[in-house]
Amino acid sequence: MILKAIIIFFAMVVVDFFYGRYTIATAERKAVPASAWAGGIILINCVVVCEYITSHWLIPVAAVGSMVGTYLSIKTKKQDATVVEPR
Asked: pLDDT tens digit string along 33-81?
């Protein structure tokens, strides 16, 4: 159960990192990157959902992983934004 919780935590970190990048790419109207991020979201999220359906105690673990993934996605994008290219 502990190993499954760790796997779900990190899988949700990845899913929500992808989701943050998907949202950014969509806002920037970048169709190809947005669609690639969307595909990754679906692939990983399907596996995660199938796993935590077997034990509802894993849902809070997934939620915390989701929070961490979104935080990392936005935090790393802010670092990317510090390098501004002239237009």
From this structure: 999 999 999 999 998 888 878 888 998 999 999 999 999 988 887 665 5
Q: Angle 10-11-14 (CA atoms, 0-180°, nearest 5)?
A: 90
Return the H-helix or E-strand segment holding 77.
helix 59-81
pLDDT at 86 exceeding the cut of 70:
no
Answer left, alpha or beta for residue 9, where phi above 0 means left and psi between -120 and 50 means alpha.
Answer: alpha
* Whole-angstrom distance, CA of residue 52 vs CA of residue 41: 16
**Amino acid occupying residue 55:** S
pTM: 0.78
- b/e burial code for range 44-83 (CB count within 10 A of at least 16 → b): bbeebeebbeeeeebeebbeebbebbbeebeeeeeeeeee
C-alpha 42/C-alpha 17 separation (Å) is: 13
